[in-house]
Design brief:
The complex is a heterodimer of chains A (371) and B (85). Chain A has twelve helices and ten strands. By secondary structure, chain A is an alpha/beta fold. Chain A has two domains: 232 residues, Type I PLP-dependent aspartate aminotransferase-like (Major domain) (Aspartate Aminotransferase, domain 2); 120 residues, Aspartate Aminotransferase, domain 1 (Alpha-Beta Complex). Chain A has a seven-stranded mixed β-sheet with strand order 1-7-6-5-4-2-3, with helices on both faces. Chain A has a three-stranded antiparallel β-sheet with strand order 8-9-10. In chain A, strand 2, helix 4 and strand 3 form a beta-alpha-beta unit. The longest helix of chain A is centred in the N-terminal third of the chain and has 21 residues. Chain A starts with 12 loop residues before the first helix and ends in a 6-residue tail after the last helix. The relative contact order of chain A is 0.16. Chain B has a four-stranded mixed β-sheet, with helices on one face. The N and C termini of chain B lie close together (11 Å). The chains are: A alpha/beta (371), B alpha+beta (85).
């Protein structure tokens, strides 16, 4: 039972069929002139159009690239390069590593991170203050957080960015496919694998007004070396399917997460992280005192339950999760659930029934005092 | 923290040496040491796993105690102090 659908999600039959038909019909190099290539190109163009519509973008300003990570890097680099003379990037403290690493690389470390509150919302006063300084090239604030699910108040963020005339990059890699696309952005990045499409594809949307310059040798080619055409087609079909099921599925998953949040809050020594209301429908993290994250994940895996973790202990970097540290949560014993449409009420019930015993066992093994 | 809380004098300050231990062991040692100590007592944990800088304040919040602060140590790592309620 797979409860780790944040960043990747099982593909439905319809998505798999689209991928297979993409292999059969879109095997040719879409950049050439003959009939076979034209067919592959048509598949990419039609898919791009569908993706652009779902993102609230225009096809000619929607760029496909080989990963969301690369999309973030290129969107940042493209805008930064067009903002000559401004050399600082302002980002929220809960951005993805991809964003912060790219920002540090571009600016030689001239990055300001804006703190978030206990629920994970960016501090708007600090943000506005930073953006008011005229050396800022761009601001990066995510739509929703992939670990704790909190959705940012992008209308206010965008207002602050617009007031300072600073372009806003919105990382929507955790949210597209799980609710309405954000409206407030100058550039936006989406991750098809997160909504049940294949991995190995990233989508970047730019507003027509957003200035960017290629900071890479391939000019306006965002996917040097070419795209996997079946992946592009399957990504568009998967998003279409999510949007069709939106109301029913998201409501159900939201209800399941509510149940997880309220139940986990009753377990001793457990802290439920993130905003209970302004959040993704399908993501929740709770952290458990006195429990080693790796032991917890392994134990659940032996029970046939796959969950995610933000624990330092499981990533073996010895660096606590930046996101969890930013909201004041424990660095260890974290369980992140990402629910996909195939998760049943009974699956969640089974996890909730099992957890108190798992926690008691692991705490006893670690010699932890009673809570 | 109110003036009344500060006025509560606990037992003599306690130091827990958790150097070399990885999370979550430093806060397990902290929790063990805190048992049986009176309200107002200050407990300082010496840690080399920097995750403890996140975990000790979170532990204080989750267990209803107060995080006092962080200070340097003579060796590597940090000293993190809580006051028990």
């Amino acid at each position: 039972m797979f409860l780790d659908a944040s960043g990747s999600s099982p593909m439905t039959n319809r998505t798999l069929e689209a991928f297979h038909s993409g292999l059969a019909d879109g095997w040719a190099d879409p950049s050439r002139l003959h009939t076979e290539s034209r067919r592959a190109r048509q598949l990419v163009d039609a898919s791009r159009e569908a993706l652009a519509e779902a993102l609230g973008s225009r096809p000619e300003h929607t760029f496909l690239t080989q990963s969301p990570h690369l999309g973030i890097e290129r969107a940042l680099a493209g805008i930064f390069t067009a903002r000559r003379g401004r050399d600082r990037i302002v980002a929220s403290a809960v951005e993805r590593d991809a964003t912060l690493h790219a920002a540090h690389h571009l600016t030689g470390g001239n990055v300001t991170t804006v703190p978030v509150d206990r629920l994970g919302h960016v501090d708007l006063d600090v943000l506005a203050g930073e953006l008011a300084v005229p050396d800022v090239a761009l601001a990066a604030v995510q739509h929703a957080n992939h670990e704790i699910g909190t959705v940012q108040r992008l209308d206010a963020v965008a207002e602050a960015a617009a007031a300072a005339k600073v372009p806003l990059l919105v990382d929507a890699t955790a949210s597209i496919g799980h609710g309405p696309a954000p409206e407030h952005w100058d550039a936006m990045v989406a991750n098809p694998a997160d909504w049940g499409g294949p991995a190995g594809l990233g989508v970047v949307a730019m507003r027509p007004r957003t200035r960017w310059l290629p900071a890479w040798p391939e000019g306006d080619d965002w996917a040097p070396g070419g795209l996997l055409v079946p992946a592009v087609l399957a990504a568009a079909v998967a998003l279409q399917e999510r949007l069709e099921q939106r109301d029913a599925t998201q409501g159900r998953l939201r209800g399941l997460v509510d149940r997880v949040r309220s139940t986990a809050a009753t377990w001793p020594g457990v802290d439920v992280v993130g905003d209970p209301d302004e959040r993704l429908p399908h993501v929740v993290t709770f952290s458990c005192l006195y429990v080693d994250g790796e032991a917890l994940l392994s134990r659940l895996d032996r029970e046939g339950i796959a969950v995610g973790s933000g624990s330092a202990c499981t990533t073996s970097t010895l660096e606590p999760s930046r996101v969890l540290a930013a909201v004041g949560a424990l660095s260890h014993g974290n369980v992140r659930l990402g629910l996909h449409p195939g998760v049943s009420d009974a699956d969640v019930s089974r996890l909730l029934a099992l957890m108190p015993r798992v926690l008691a066992d692991l705490r006893a093994e670690a010699g932890a005092p009673e809570l | 923290m109110t003036a009344d809380d500060a006025a509560v004098e606990g037992d003599a300050p306690v130091t827990v040496d958790a150097t070399g231990l990885l999370c979550p062991l430093p806060i397990i040692e902290l929790a063990k040491a805190a048992r049986g100590l009176g309200p107002g007592t200050e407990v300082t944990v010496l840690c080399t796993d920097l995750a403890a800088r996140v975990d000790v304040p979170a532990w204080a919040r989750m267990t209803g105690n107060d995080f006092v602060g962080e200070s340097e140590t003579d060796g590597e790592g940090v000293a993190l102090t809580v006051r028990l309620r």
